[in-house]
Amino acid sequence: MTTLADRPTLATALKRGWRRKCPQCGSGHMFKGYLTIGEACASCDLPFEPLRADDAPAYFTIAIVGHVVVSGLLALESYAHPPSWVQLSIWLPTTLVMTLGLLPYIKGAVMAAIYCANRAD
Ligand SMILES: [Zn+2]
User: Fold this and answer.
1) What confidence tens digit (pLDDT) does each residue in 58-101 have?
2) What is the pLDDT of residues 31-68, one digit of tens each?
3) What is the pTM of this model?
4) Buried b / exposed e across 48-73, counting CB within 10 Å, b at 16+?
5) Around ion ligand 1, which residues have CB less than 5 A away?
6) Are 60 and 110 in contact (CB under 8 A)?
7) Are 38 and 107 in contact, with CB atoms under 8 Å apart?
8) Which of 17, 19, 49, 55 is surrounded by the most beta carbons within 10 Å?
9) What is the distance of C-alpha 5 from the center of its chain?
10) How many angstroms separate the alpha carbon of residue 54 from the centre of ligand 1?
11) 22 C-alpha to center of ligand 1: Å?
């Protein structure tokens, strides 16, 4: 049982969530698949079902990837004027890799933020 003194700060919970670990104890895994959450923490029994992130991780991921890709594309276009196939061959894979790479970590951090917002301090 977690006491009030054991409760993690928001920063600690976000770091744990980013690592896809339980925001409360930091040792149990929140995910049982790529984006599928488990039922509860194997270590502290925190239920993960109430930490529903819905579409928020996708919005944050789109915002981050969009800023990187669009600014990179525009910067490359303004400095080097490469052909379209060069732009596409750089930025389409970058978008795919960044999106699929960031999404589970951002989902974990969002779930940790929801955990901190929902707990009764
Ligand atoms: Zn836990």
Assistant:
1) 999 999 999 999 999 999 999 999 999 999 999 999 999 999 99
2) 999 999 999 999 999 999 999 999 999 999 999 999 99
3) 0.89
4) beebebeebbbebbeeebeeebeeeb
5) 22, 24-25, 28, 41, 43-44, 46
6) yes
7) no
8) 17
9) 27
10) 21
11) 4
Distance CA 17, CA 64 (A): 18
Beta carbons of 38 and 29 less than 8 angstroms apart? yes
Q: CA nearest 1: which of 35, 56, 44?
A: 44
Structurally, the chain folds into a number of domains equal to 1
Residue 110 CB: number of other CB atoms within 10 A?
Answer: 24
Residue 8, token pair as written in the block: 């993690």
H-helix segments, 31-55: none
